[in-house]
Each structure stands twice: as structure tokens, then as C-alpha cells.
């Protein structure tokens, strides 16, 4: 799952003020901090984060060199007739030719600046566009005009609402946002929106339970994440890669054990679990790995594995029918392990019976080493 990026603009004002903005960004999980060239090392002292800096030569220690501030391209004055051969484009081309990551910075005041931004994008890895009174239409035009180009569009915004609009414009939206605010809540909201934006929802179907059967002792996997989940939210797990059951987190209260909203008691060691666009075996997961957290609506977000516990426990086989296809999974035989019903409500596996409907992600294409492949694969 490749979420869209959030950049924090911190190139103006007193350092102490900018430091607070940068620190909040670090704590909130922003991807880049944008500063002037002489502040790069100051930012690195605050934490491990990628730094973009306004500079014009390859001596900069920044991860991304940003070209455009203080020149005609930033919208400070009207564009001259021969602007297509401007210093900014020449500089960006030279820096990128040296193997550096380069971003172009353009304040869009009118159609001419929009056209220049599109032209400059051809020389950059990123194009940062900051609107004035005219925002949505230029962004739509740039998204349409650059969709087949190897450049990421970063849209300047001041609030989380503006960020939401930018990230959703023309369905695809910008590839990220440059946020200009000192408000900690706006920074946190924007990062949360970026985590969800650009991540496609999964199609989950209702499968009808056909068999619930105890199968004896085996090794099962508990996945403890660094994320808190809610009821109806969990992981997609199954014995066949073509059919993954939504296994509920332990977020629900139980008379047997305390709520553990960070945990999914996922299933037997052999089972597949969805990780981004791939699958892994549950027994392969380890601390620091990414895993998909999914809710009953199919909305997904990235989770980080904090710990994996493999223990010997009594197991049960669950089989279900989805459009004439049989899908299976094996989970621990305990009241705290739950699947998610068609209506989005958790249902304990110990209460399952034939005829119940649970949510499953089904796909016709098989997988090889976790990746989708067009070949005949039979899993029973």
C-alpha cells in the first residue's frame, strides 16, 4: 500500500517557530520537511526524516533539491515571453542529470504559470504547485496532463480540508501535499487523510459457512500490531490465497480475557495473510513488517507488526461457499477468535454454524511467492 505523501513547509519565519512545526510533523509521521538550504542539518538533528531544501547546486545535503524559490517561477512577478528556457528548468535538468532528486516549485497565479509548471515537471521528479485564488482547475489540468509522466505532483495546502480536496481531485488526486500550517491538529488530520487516500478499497463478498470442524492440535499465530483496531476491523487470512477470511481483531470486550485491540489471533502457521498487494505466510511475519488492516467495508490501511506469537493450540477447520467456490481457513478453537459477518458484526468461531454468512476476499487468480500469477493453481 503506497500512501500519498505529506510534506511540511518550514522555510519561513523564526527558527524556533519552524522547529515546533517540524517537531509536530515528525511526531505525526510526515514524509518530508521543506526548508532552506542552510537548515538541512538542523532538521536532521531533530529526528530521522527526509529533507527537501531550496538550493541550486549539488552540494546540498538534502534528500530532494527544490528549484524555484526566489526566481520568476515562484510567481513573484509576471513571466517574461521567453520563460520556457528559464534558469529554473536549466538548473533542474542539470541537477537531475547528476543523479539527484529534484523538485520544481511554482506558485500558480494564472494559466501561464500552470503551463510553466507542466513544462518544468518534465525536468523534475516532483512538481510542487502552490495555488493563490485559483487552485482546483490548475490541479485538475496538471493531473490530466502529467498522468503518464514520471513525476509526482505535490499540491500546496493550508488545511486538512484543502488536503482532502487535493488528494481526491479527479479520483486519482495529487501524489502528495505540501502543508503550510502551525496547527498540530491540522498536521495530524492531514497525515491521517494521506494514509487513507490512494489506498483502494477491497471487494469483500459474503460466503456461506458449510463446515465447522475440530481438527486437533497445531501451531497458530497471534499478530500483535503497533496499531489499535476497532470492532469489525482485522486481517484477511485463509488457507487458500484465492479466499481470505476477514478475521476480527480482539478489540471487543470479552468475559474471558481483556480487550486487546492491537491483536489479531489470525490462524494456523501455514495460512496466507494479505500484505499490501501480496500475501505472506503467517509464520513469516516478524516485528517491523507491514500488514493490511481491513474493515467490513473493505477499507484498508497499513499496520505494522510489533510482535508475533506462535503457540500450540486446539484448531478448527472452517469451510465456506462463495459463488460455488469452496474456501477454507484454520483458526484456534476459542471464543475470542471471531470472523466478521455479512452485516459487519463479529461472530465467534465457536458460534459458527452452517448457513451463517461471513466476509471473504475472493479472487480467481492464484499466487506464486505471494504475487498474483495467471496460471493453474489448485489449493484444497
UniProtKB/TrEMBL annotation:
Domain of life: Archaea
Alphabetized UniProt keyword annotations: Amino-acid biosynthesis, Aromatic amino acid biosynthesis, NAD, Oxidoreductase
Family: Belongs to the archaeal-type DHQ synthase family.
Natural source organism: Methanomethylovorans hollandica (strain DSM 15978 / NBRC 107637 / DMS1)
Key word Amino-acid biosynthesis present: yes
Biological-process GO terms, alphabetical: amino acid biosynthetic process; aromatic amino acid family biosynthetic process
Key word Amino-acid biosynthesis present: yes
Record-level Gene Ontology MF annotations: 3-dehydroquinate synthase activity; dehydroquinate synthase activity; NAD binding
EC assignment: 1.4.1.24
Domain 3-dehydroquinate synthase N-terminal: 4-193
Protein name: 3-dehydroquinate synthase
Function: Catalyzes the oxidative deamination and cyclization of 2-amino-3,7-dideoxy-D-threo-hept-6-ulosonic acid (ADH) to yield 3-dehydroquinate (DHQ), which is fed into the canonical shikimic pathway of aromatic amino acid biosynthesis.
Domain 3-dehydroquinate synthase C-terminal: 207-380
Taxonomic lineage: Archaea, Methanobacteriati, Methanobacteriota, Stenosarchaea group, Methanomicrobia
Catalytic activity: 2-amino-2,3,7-trideoxy-D-lyxo-hept-6-ulosonate + NAD(+) + H2O = 3-dehydroquinate + NH4(+) + NADH + H(+)
Amino acid at each position: 500500500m503506497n500512501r500519498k505523501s505529506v510534506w511540511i513547509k518550514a522555510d519561513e519565519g523564526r527558527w524556533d517557530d519552524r522547529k515546533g512545526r517540524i517537531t509536530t510533523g515528525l511526531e505525526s509521521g510526515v514524509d518530508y520537511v521543506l526548508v532552506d538550504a542552510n537548515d538541512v542539518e538542523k532538521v536532521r538533528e531533530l529526528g530521522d526524516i527526509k529533507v527537501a531544501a531550496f538550493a541550486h547546486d549539488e552540494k546540498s545535503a538534502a534528500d530532494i533539491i527544490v528549484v524555484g524559490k526566489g526566481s520568476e517561477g515562484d510567481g513573484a512577478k509576471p513571466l517574461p515571453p521567453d520563460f520556457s528556457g528559464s534558469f529554473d528548468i536549466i538548473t533542474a535538468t542539470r541537477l537531475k542529470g547528476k543523479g539527484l532528486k529534484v523538485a520544481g516549485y511554482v506558485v500558480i497565479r494564472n494559466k501561464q504559470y500552470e503551463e510553466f509548471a507542466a513544462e518544468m515537471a518534465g525536468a523534475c521528479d516532483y512538481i510542487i504547485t502552490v495555488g493563490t485564488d485559483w487552485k482546483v482547475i490548475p490541479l485538475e489540468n496538471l493531473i490530466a496532463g502529467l498522468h503518464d509522466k514520471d513525476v509526482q505532483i505535490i499540491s500546496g495546502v493550508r488545511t486538512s480540508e484543502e488536503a482532502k480536496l487535493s488528494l481526491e481531485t479527479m479520483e486519482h488526486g495529487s501524489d502528495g501535499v505540501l502543508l503550510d500550517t502551525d496547527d498540530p491538529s491540522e498536521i495530524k488530520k492531514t497525515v491521517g487523510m494521506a494514509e487513507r487516500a490512494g489506498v483502494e478499497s477491497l471487494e469483500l463478498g459474503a460466503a456461506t459457512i458449510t463446515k465447522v470442524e475440530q481438527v486437533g492440535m497445531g501451531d497458530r499465530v497471534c499478530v500483535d500490531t503497533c496499531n489499535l483496531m476497532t470492532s469489525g476491523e482485522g486481517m484477511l487470512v485463509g488457507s487458500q490465497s484465492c479466499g481470505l477470511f476477514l478475521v476480527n481483531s480482539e478489540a471487543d470486550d470479552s468475559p474471558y480475557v481483556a480487550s486487546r485491540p492491537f491483536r489479531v489471533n489470525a490462524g494456523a502457521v501455514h495460512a496466507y495473510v494479505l500484505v499490501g498487494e501480496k500475501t505472506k505466510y503467517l509464520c513469516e511475519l516478524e516485528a517491523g513488517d507491514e500488514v493490511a488492516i481491513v474493515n467490513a467495508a473493505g477499507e484498508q490501511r497499513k499496520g505494522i507488526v510489533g510482535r508475533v506469537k506462535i503457540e500450540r493450540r486446539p484448531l478448527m477447520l472452517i469451510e465456506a461457499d462463495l459463488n460455488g467456490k469452496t474456501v477454507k481457513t484454520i483458526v484456534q478453537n476459542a471464543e475470542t477468535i471471531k470472523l466478521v459477518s455479512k452485516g459487519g458484526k463479529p461472530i465467534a468461531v465457536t458460534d459458527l454454524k452452517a448457513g451463517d454468512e461471513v466476509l471473504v476476499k475472493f479472487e480467481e487468480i492464484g499466487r506464486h511467492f505471494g504475487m498474483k500469477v495467471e496460471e493453474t493453481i489448485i489449493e484444497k
